[in-house]
């Protein structure tokens, strides 16, 4: 008899299993694939970041080093080698989970998990053999799958989802990306850097969905300058393949129809929770219209003893959000006080420059009718950024007009994904913009731009 069976070994599931093991529970983690780590480690965060790094190196060497007086001639791309490196990185990290399971006495079980009743989970292995395990509690951490749109069918060759776009056999001549969200911009950047013409078709009038409007505008300008072509406010109506050519049809705002051709198409219009075949009906657990499982503040579903976390529940579909929930639910189950502060979950887009955010956007504050002030500072005024030719972008801090408490922050620029965490910590401690502004920041660092933005919430930045 297990104390806890976790279904799914993504960043939500494996962290929950490890933490529960550390806290003395007898735990099993069931994973339908041969490797642990879920979307994030196998076909998400990690392989995409591996390719972003490699493609950045290629572009830097190919095009940008000469401004430093470093002349490299005859730069060649070995895509197979680049992919091999990516597989190596993924393998190291997925093997790392095996090690953690062993260390913390988690039984990792390969097979498809389905809930038989509140205390039993059936595991079906690839060869069809079945076993039924008994448990006191069940944690659903089954994650998400790519969403689709009518008229566009993934053929895993010419028309792919993010998984396919991580393994193209050659650099596409022309890549059409449907959806100007996080995946579209990250993977669009990878292939553009390697030589593809990239056209992004987006339904909304702006890129990056609900991000702060000013940041989205700057991002579009900078990615446009790099060569990504954007068609905003368009509705994709279909995609078809003939030989090696895919044709995507779409309507513009005025209702006029268009068709464009490419050798590869990436569909990335969001993700949806994955609970197919999980046996929710056997325990009477319903999902909402969009497929999400509802939970209470302790991550328990409407069925006692059944818990859920990660992409399968509402909230940003991010690995670190799933991880925090995994840790928190394990602590709750061990009688401790697991907690996730949903107001301070950073988001990072690992493009060049990086884009990072935490907390409220200016638009959301306007919607709430909240009085706020804005402190902004351009990386053009930051010595370190100037020295490394990384002056594009800015830091924007939003603070309460009366109390000066930081409500949100948005950064587009060098190391944005690291800089944002200073502001996260400040927000966790309920800091004011002045608290940040009064903190000594080493010179010359990018973080001085954060301090200057905080100063700009008060009497003004120095280098503006
Ligand atoms: P998942 O990681 O999806 O894991 C769920 C696991 O459950 C899977 O392994 C699945 O096989 C298994 N499973 C499902 N059903 C069953 C069953 N019945 N039986 C057994 N096993 C089952 N997020 C970030 O924060 N940063 C990033 O840089 C980032 N990059 C991304 C890049 C891409 C291309 C993609 C697609 C996503 C990216 N994400 C990123 C999002 C991130 O991957 C997800 O938010 C995260 O993986 C969700 O974790 P999870 O544990 O809820 O689910
Ligand atoms: P997304 O939600 O970020 O973006 C999808 C985009 O597609 C939106 O801009 C949307 O308006 C657009 N769209 C929807 N329907 C459309 C249509 N019919 N035609 C044209 N455009 C349409 O989703 P994405 O990029 O697929 O990523 C999925 C999830 O994975 C995200 O929730 C994200 O959080 C996560 N992720 C996170 C990363 C990170 O943290 N760095 C990296 C990659 C993914």
Explain what you see.
It contains 14 helices and 22 strands. It is of the alpha/beta class. Helix 1 runs parallel beside helix 9, helix 3 (45-64) runs antiparallel to helix 4 and helix 3 runs parallel beside helix 6. The termini are far apart. Strands 1, 2, 3, 4, 5, 6 and 17 form a seven-stranded mixed β-sheet that branches. The longest helix has 25 residues, at 79-103. The chain has helices spanning 11-22, 38-43, 45-64, 79-103, 162-165, 182-194, 213-226, 280-283, 319-333, 362-368, 383-387, 416-428, 433-437, 447-456; strands spanning 2-7, 27-31, 106-110, 112-117, 120-124, 130-140, 144-146, 159-160, 174-178, 197-201, 229-231, 235-242, 245-251, 257-262, 264-267, 271-273, 306-308, 347-349, 354-359, 372-378, 394-400, 406-413. The structure holds flavin-adenine dinucleotide and 1,4-dihydronicotinamide adenine dinucleotide (NAI). 1,4-dihydronicotinamide adenine dinucleotide is lined by residues 149, 178-184, 186, 201-204, 209, 236, 268-271, 316-318, 347-350.
Mean pLDDT: 97
Helix-residue proportion: 25-40%
Determine Rg (CA atoms, Å): 23 Å
Sheet with the most strands, sense and barrel status = 7 strands, mixed
Bin the strand percentage. Answer: 25-35%
Number of strand elements: 22
Bound ligands, named by name, code or SMILES: flavin-adenine dinucleotide, 1,4-dihydronicotinamide adenine dinucleotide
From the spread of the alpha carbons, the general shape counts as: globular
Give the uncertain stretches in residue-range form.
Answer: none
Number of helices: 14
Alpha-beta classification: alpha/beta
Gap between N and C termini, in Å? 64 Å
